[in-house]
């Protein structure tokens, strides 16, 4: 990534409003866009990209103001992720996951724990990764005096070696009790495998990780007091929260695909020789396709914004979150997740219809938008999201909180 023309954020006032933070994210996106296709092809570890997120202040967006954070909320965070993802879906995902793992202490931990984590994260501009793949149950946690010992492997660990700290998840040996903790990413025994080699989201450092006797103090076990965990309904808000992160970078990628394609159509596409038009932008089918795809994107963005605002009310008063409120929110999230998936896949595929054969060159890199969306939308089957909505409509059944609902 070129750093020759980076904005001088250090000498400018920090943004103060949600709108100003969204504009800051757009500045970051403009830097990422300059060589996004080349960086995607190279697939190199995104150290410079994460430094960009830190220097711009985006990593501390949710952090407390008194410790250097912006004190913003999830509504703003989702918009920022969407904006960054227009230029680079991988970096948008990294940022979105960072926000979730930064927030994990508040979701699960005691007040003392999350206040400490959020203060340290803001002061030190920590970038978070997470070794929390719920389909892998082979990380076993044992006790050794005042310490917990994590041993096993996770297939996916987004953030990997570009992170400063990593959220770990495991199950106490011989039980079904899960435990979360945060450790420095260079902790002895924590090994990232650099084996993420997928068709899309290539810069997310989402490869496997081995935990070979990773030790952490018992006191760092999120939400545990004297070895016991007291559950709250708010603990289960992790799923709808991160699913809205997914929605944010799906829609960002789709928006970026449309913007990039439109620029190509205006500047490079040739009209069809038998169509009777001198310019591609005058072709009726081209105009219709852009109108169709843009209308669909705007509709889902509006729904996503509305659902994010509904979620903010739950985040603003965690102790008041009821099972009914949580369930109804998850249904709404499931609905927008389903629509965002379909629209992002459609847009990232159909842009080639209005750019033409020459737009398929590797140098243009238009395929990265589809590859990115296609890769991550397989995270969990969208049919099960539609099922959540359908069951609620037909029988008023709320989704049971699981790792995916």
Write up what this structure looks like:
It contains eleven helices and nine strands. With 405 residues, it is an alpha+beta fold. It folds into three domains: 9-127, Butyryl-Coa Dehydrogenase, subunit A, domain 1 (Orthogonal Bundle), CATH 1.10.540; 130-229, Butyryl-CoA Dehydrogenase, subunit A, domain 2; 233-395, Butyryl-CoA Dehydrogenase, subunit A, domain 3 (Up-down Bundle). Strands 1, 2, 3, 4, 5, 6 and 7 form a seven-stranded mixed β-sheet that branches. A hairpin with a 5-residue loop joins strand 4 (165-172) and strand 5. The mean pLDDT is 95. It catalyses: dibenzothiophene + FMNH2 + O2 = dibenzothiophene 5-oxide + FMN + H2O + H(+); dibenzothiophene + 2 FMNH2 + 2 O2 = dibenzothiophene 5,5-dioxide + 2 FMN + 2 H2O + 2 H(+); dibenzothiophene 5-oxide + FMNH2 + O2 = dibenzothiophene 5,5-dioxide + FMN + H2O + H(+). GO terms for molecular function: 3-methylbutanoyl-CoA dehydrogenase activity; flavin adenine dinucleotide binding; monooxygenase activity. Its EC number is 1.14.14.21.
Q: Which features does this protein show?
A:
405 residues; alpha+beta; Butyryl-Coa Dehydrogenase, subunit A, domain 1; Butyryl-CoA Dehydrogenase, subunit A, domain 2; Butyryl-CoA Dehydrogenase, subunit A, domain 3; 3 domains; seven-stranded mixed β-sheet; two-stranded antiparallel sheet; 9 strands; globular; EC 1.14.14.21; oxidoreductase; Acyl-CoA_Oxase/DH_mid-dom; nucleotide-binding
């Amino acid at each position: 990534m070129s750093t020759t023309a980076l904005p001088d954020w250090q000498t400018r006032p920090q943004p103060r409003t949600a709108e100003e933070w969204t504009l800051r994210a757009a500045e970051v996106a403009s830097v990422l866009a300059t060589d996004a296709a080349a960086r995607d092809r190279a697939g190199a570890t995104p150290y410079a990209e994460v430094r960009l997120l830190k220097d711009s202040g985006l990593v501390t967006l949710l952090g407390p103001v008194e410790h250097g954070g912006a004190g913003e909320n999830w509504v703003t965070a989702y918009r920022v992720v969407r904006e960054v993802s227009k230029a680079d879906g991988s970096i948008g995902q990294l940022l979105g996951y960072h926000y979730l793992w930064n927030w994990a202490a508040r979701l699960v931990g005691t007040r003392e724990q999350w206040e400490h984590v959020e203060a340290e994260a803001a002061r030190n501009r920590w970038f978070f990764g997470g070794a929390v793949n719920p389909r892998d149950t082979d990380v076993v946690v044992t006790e050794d005096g005042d310490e917990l010992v994590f041993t096993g492997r996770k297939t996916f660990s987004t953030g990997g070696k570009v992170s400063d700290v990593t959220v770990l998840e495991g199950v106490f040996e011989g039980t079904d009790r899960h435990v979360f903790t945060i450790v420095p990413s260079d902790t002895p025994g924590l090994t990232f495998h650099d084996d993420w080699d997928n068709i899309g989201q290539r810069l997310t450092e989402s490869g496997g990780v081995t935990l070979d006797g990773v030790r952490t103090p018992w006191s760092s076990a999120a939400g545990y007091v004297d070895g016991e965990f007291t559950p709250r309904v708010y603990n289960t808000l992790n799923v709808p929260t991160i699913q809205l992160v997914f929605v944010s970078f799906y829609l960002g990628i789709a928006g970026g695909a449309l913007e990039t394609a439109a620029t190509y159509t205006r500047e490079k596409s040739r009209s069809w020789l038998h169509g009777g038009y001198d310019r591609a932008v005058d072709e009726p089918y081209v105009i219709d396709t852009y109108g169709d795809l843009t209308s669909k994107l705007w509709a889902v963005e509006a729904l996503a914004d509305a659902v994010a605002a509904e979620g903010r009310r739950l985040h603003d008063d965690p102790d008041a979150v009821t099972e009914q409120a949580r369930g109804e929110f998850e249904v709404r999230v499931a609905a927008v997740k389903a629509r965002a998936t379909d629209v992002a896949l459609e847009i990232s595929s159909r842009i080639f219809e209005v750019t033409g054969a020459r737009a398929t060159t590797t140098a243009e890199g238009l395929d990265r938008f589809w590859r990115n969306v296609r890769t991550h939308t397989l995270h969990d089957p969208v049919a099960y999201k539609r099922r959540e909505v359908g069951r609620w409509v037909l029988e008023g059944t709320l989704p049971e909180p699981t790792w995916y609902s």
